[in-house]
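Sequence in, structure out. Go.
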Amino acid sequence: MMSPYKTHTWLPLAVAALLLILGPQSSLAEEPIYRLCVPEIYLAECQQLLADPSEAGIRMECVAGRDRVDCLELIEQRKADVLATEPEDMYIAYHRKNEDYRVISEIRTQQDKD
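Output:
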């Protein structure tokens, strides 16, 4: 289970990382909608966060998974595109027979110092 600190910071950081990586786009109508998978307990917060359109022109929607491992399965099934994970989730993804997983960004906080 995530600490309260991580609960409030991982979702905005994941979205910010995705926005930085994908960069600005010229037309909303031509761009895909990226599906951000979050554990179902965070669905309302995700929807609230994505209620305002992205300044970068990236369209996103929230998809609820039972938990982070379920979100990995939703990516395998092509029902979600991106999620924020913890290192243990990436370990699980590494040992699954699937090549769909790509680490697009690593976010460290003051609490995550080496």
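Check: Residues 4-22 form the longest helix (19 residues). The first strand starts at residue 33 and ends at 39.
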